[in-house]
Every structure is written in C-alpha cells, then in structure tokens.
Design brief:
CATH superfamily of the largest domain: P-loop containing nucleotide triphosphate hydrolases
Oligomer: single chain
Number of strands: 9
CATH class of the largest domain: Alpha Beta
Strand content: 15-25%
CATH topology of the largest domain: Rossmann fold
Largest sheet: 6 strands, mixed
Radius of gyration: 19 Å
Number of helices: 9
C-alpha cells in the first residue's frame, strides 16, 4: 500500500514556544489514522501545518494526491448562514460547471443522509446535522486526504456515535484516506486503523499503534471487545506517562519494548 501522506521531522515554533518538536510519520492510502495527545500539546497545530494553513518552522510535509479537505470542530462557524445547505456544499466547487457542482453536492448530501435538507439554511438544522453538512462539503471536494480536527467534540454522545459510524461508512465505501485529531481515547480506538500518541508540548511521537480490530465495527460490541479495552488502557497509560514533566526521549526508549507486547484481539 502506497503512502498518501509523509511527515518528516516536522517542527513549529510560536515565538519562544515550541509547539511541535520534530514529528515523523506516514499515512497509507485508504487508512484512517487518529492522533491523540494531552490537551495543548499541539495536535491542532499539527493538523493546520499539514493542511498548509500554518507554515512549519522545519521539516517537510508531502501529500501524494491532488487535494485535501479539512473539517473543523466548530461547524457553526465553518458554514455560511446566508447560503442553503446545497450552497454550502457547492461552495468549494465554484470552479466547476454548474451541473457538475450540483451533482457532486447532491451525491455528498445523500452520503451523509441529508438529501431532504438541501434547501434549508444551516441555522435551521441541529448541531449534528450541521456537522454532517461540513462533512458533505469536504467529501464533495473529493479530497485525496480528509483532515478532521476534533470533528465530533461539540455534539452530544448519541450524535457523536452516529457521526463516527458515518465516517467509517463513507471511508469504507469511498476509500477515503483520513487523519483525525481527537482528545477522546475511546473514539481513537473505535475509528482508527492506527493511533499516533503524542507527548505533551512540544509534541513528539510517543507511539504508533496498530488497532487490531475488525474493519466492521459496532458501537456496542466493539467497545466491549477485549482488544478494544486492552488498547484503550494502553493509550491511556501512554498519555499519562507522556506528560510534559517527563523526559520523553528517555521514556520512549524504555517504552518501545512494552509496545511489542501483543494486544488481545
């Protein structure tokens, strides 16, 4: 499987504050990779640097595809209230002929279950439906890589579960490559093929974990699976040990041995 994204020795500094301390990792085509780390460790900065919204202080980001799209946590600010749902989804497609714009938007709205809401305004929709519009807009762009910055953090638990399953279905059916930043350990295990665990600021890579769960996942049975529980505990332990007060380099060297242990499946 070829790499869709390659990040090499990526670093970013705000003035005297080092937010990202030299990250290197890859994301394979068709993979869904989750990034977790302590609050304030630089996860969002990482995503913005990969997307090109922020210029790195050092290192390289290589995207092996023609387009990327970003879905942010604050869906209410990312949608234009004066445009219809259809208009919002069509917005990044303005360079395309009108008929193609409409066809792509209609298709993306069908993917996220909002075909009947095309003529409504965002403010007429619930929070979960607004986030579906944001996801549809990103998918209509047909990105080679979909970047998501804590996309479900602002919705209730039931809506979060529905949107997680929506993302898994869209990714599976359309072979989309996805990189998700999340603060939720359970979500990272439920969604991911791999989990990248970051240290406290400046962000360094603590662990790159494969998720040994079946591709087909269920909110009830998957979350009670022995492998799910074991991996969730491991990620929690890694995050706790990887706090800013720790010597990350020294700890990571010792931890690599424990990462070779088999997680029950």
């Amino acid at each position: 499987m070829s790499n869709m994204l390659e990040v090499a020795d990526l670093g970013h500094t705000y003035g005297d504050h080092e937010a990202i301390g030299g990250l290197s990792f890859t994301v394979r085509a068709g993979e869904l990779v989750c990034v977790v780390g302590p609050s304030g460790c630089g996860k969002s900065t990482l995503l913005r640097t990969i997307s090109g919204l922020v210029s790195p202080t050092r290192g390289d980001v290589s995207l092996h595809g023609s387009h990327l799209a970003v879905v942010f946590q604050d869906y209410s600010r990312s949608l234009f209230p004066w445009l219809s749902v259809q208009g919002n989804v069509e917005f990044p497609l303005r360079s395309l002929p009108r008929a193609e714009r409409r066809a792509r938007a209609a298709e993306a709205l069908e993917w996220v279950g909002l075909s009947g809401a095309a003529r409504k305004r965002p403010w007429q929709l619930s929070g979960g439906m607004q986030q579906r519009v944001a996801i549809a807009r990103a998918l209509a762009y047909r990105p080679a890589l979909l970047l998501m910055d804590e996309p479900f953090a602002s919705v209730d638990a039931q809506t979060r579960f529905e949107l997680e399953d929506l993302l898994l279905r869209v990714r599976r059916e359309h072979d989309t490559t996805v990189l998700v930043v999340t603060h939720d350990i359970d979500e990272s295990v439920y969604l991911g093929d791999r989990i990248l665990v970051l240290s406290g600021s400046p962000a360094r890579l603590v662990a790159d974990l494969e998720v040994p769960l079946p591709a087909e996942r269920n909110q009830v049975t998957t979350r009670t699976d022995e492998g799910f529980v074991a991996l969730r505990s491991k990620v929690a332990r890694l995050l706790n040990v990887g706090k800013p007060s720790m010597d990350v380099e020294k700890w990571a060297a010792a931890e690599r041995e424990s990462l070779s242990e088999t997680v029950p499946s």
